[in-house]
Automatic annotation (TrEMBL):
Lineage top rank: taxon: Bacteria
Record has DNA-binding as a keyword: no
One Pfam family in the UniProt entry: Sortase
Disordered: annotated span: 39-94
Protein name: Sortase
Keyword annotations of the record: Hydrolase
Bias (Low complexity) ranges: 39-54, 69-81
Length: 238
């Protein structure tokens, strides 16, 4: 299937850009929020009742059969060291994505979240973005997400050809160390944006895979956005 570009007002890329950012934004905002608890202040701690686990344990009963009670054992001093979590080093970022059968060969830049809480994308359709808060090709699990605009003010971008991908198409991703990862396309879908399964696309714990995303479907001049997202899923070759 092919993407349809609009035949209406100029600058469809601005709508495409906004559409893809809207699609990617919701899950990124969710992933960025972490709830936590703060310890009570000094006054609150002083007024709080002691928990049962913090109470002094009862004294042991005297031993029977001897001449009186046994002497209590002296308290044992146990050395304590503060625990320190040492995070694993981050996997190398992808730097290039190639789909030779479709003539796609793009540099890839790490992307975070923009001020509106959405995934930031390069302004040009000739540069793809990797969601840097998710898995990378060398990660042991989860989806490596790479996205790009379907077009920009200069014309249709290379990722527009993703809609033509077929199952079995080979995809190569090169990371910052120069290591090449080869994937095989297993699924190609054009999904209406309200129905895109964000949790599935941005999964961190499932099987290792590559997810390529761009806009597609019908151009809506009123919304200045495409109706769909083209989502290509590929699994790593063994």
């Amino acid at each position: 299937m092919t993407l349809r570009t609009h035949a209406g007002p100029a600058h469809p890329a601005r709508g495409a850009r906004a559409g893809l950012r809207t699609f990617l934004g919701a899950v990124l905002v969710t992933a960025a929020v972490v709830a936590g608890c703060s310890p009570p202040s000094g006054d609150e701690a002083a007024d709080a009742p002691a928990s049962p686990s913090a109470a002094t344990p009862p004294a042991p009963a005297p031993l029977r059969g001897g001449a009186g009670a046994a002497s209590p054992s002296p308290a044992t001093s146990v050395p304590v060291r503060p625990a320190r979590d040492v995070p694993e080093p981050a996997p190398p970022a992808p730097t290039r994505v190639v789909v030779a059968d479709l003539g796609i060969d793009l540099p890839v830049e790490p992307a975070g979240v923009d001020p509106d809480g959405r995934m930031a994308l390069p302004g040009s359709g000739d540069v793809a973005a990797w969601y840097r808060f998710g898995p990378a090709p060398a990660s042991p699990a989860g989806a490596t997400v790479v996205a790009a605009h379907v077009d920009d003010p200069d014309g249709v971008g290379p990722f527009a050809r993703l809609a033509e991908a077929a199952e079995g198409t080979s995809v190569e991703v090169v990371d910052a160390t120069g290591t090449s990862f080869t994937y095989t396309v297993t699924d190609v879908r054009s999904i209406a944006k309200p129905e895109v399964p964000l949790d599935e696309l941005f999964d961190r714990d499932g099987e290792r895979r590559l997810v390529l995303v761009t806009c597609g479907g019908r151009w809506d001049p009123d919304r200045r956005s495409y109706s769909d997202n083209v989502v290509v899923t590929a699994t790593p070759e063994q």
